[in-house]
Amino acid sequence: MTRIYTRSGDAGESGLANGDRITKTDLLFEVMGDVDELNAQIGMIRALNERKETAKEKIDGQLSKIQHKLFDVGAQVAQYKDNNIQSSDIEILEQWIDDWQEQLEPLKQFILPAGTQVGSAAHLARSICRRAERKAWQVAATHEIEREVMMYLNRLSDYMFVLARVLNGGNEVFWGNH
After folding, report:
1. What does the mean pLDDT of the chain come to?
2. Which CATH number fits the domain that encloses residue 48?
3. Do the domain assignments include residue 8?
4. Is the dihedral of CA 132, 135, 139, 141 positive or negative?
5. How far apart are CA 83 and CA 100, in angstroms?
6. What's the domain count of the chain?
7. Within a domain: residue 176?
């Protein structure tokens, strides 16, 4: 890129990966925006993460892979026709969830999205991810979006919930304890 601005969106339309131009008010752009916001929030988690060195490296490595996959999600939502999200990507998230869950106490009550700064950042990422998934399902009624994208977002929100618990180090805030 020689310059960051193109001026091609100044009339309220923008181009998709397949060459189509659609209005910027199309819900498809909301999904892309939510995925971008989620990716930025994950970057914030990476910046805030101060866990012990080995755990920090493991978490950072997982979040780095997720950030790259979210670019694949965004490309697919933008109508790039190669399905960049595979069932194996979903299985990786499930494995990471299972691995982290083994280190956590079983939940016996609901927790509030609170705790440490980095844990709270992960809770925020979870809620952004849920919003992106809901909108992706809405958009799938009018635009072609692979089912694996929604499945990936669904599993990613589960991962973010478990990661928030890990990052909070067992110092969770339980609902009803006020």
Report:
1. 87
2. 1.20.1200.10
3. no
4. positive
5. 28
6. 1
7. no
Cβ burial, residue 177 (10 Å; 0-12/13-18/19+)? exposed
Q: Please check whether residue 178 lies inside any domain of the structure.
A: no
Q: Please check whether residue 66 is in contact with residue 28, taking contact to mean a CB–CB distance below 8 angstroms.
A: no
Sequence-distant (≥ 6) Cβ neighbours of residue 147 within 8 angstroms = 140
Per-residue confidence band for 55, with pLDDT thresholds at 50, 70 and 90: confident
Tell me the residue type at 25. Answer: T
- Residue 14 domain-assigned (yes or no): no
Largest CA distance in the chain: 55
**pLDDT tens, residue by residue, 110-153:** 887 888 999 999 999 999 999 999 999 999 999 888 999 999 99
- The residue range of the domain holding 33 is 23-103+110-167
Nearest Cα residue to 164 out of 54, 86, 48: 48
69-87 pLDDT, tens digit each: 999 999 888 876 776 899 9
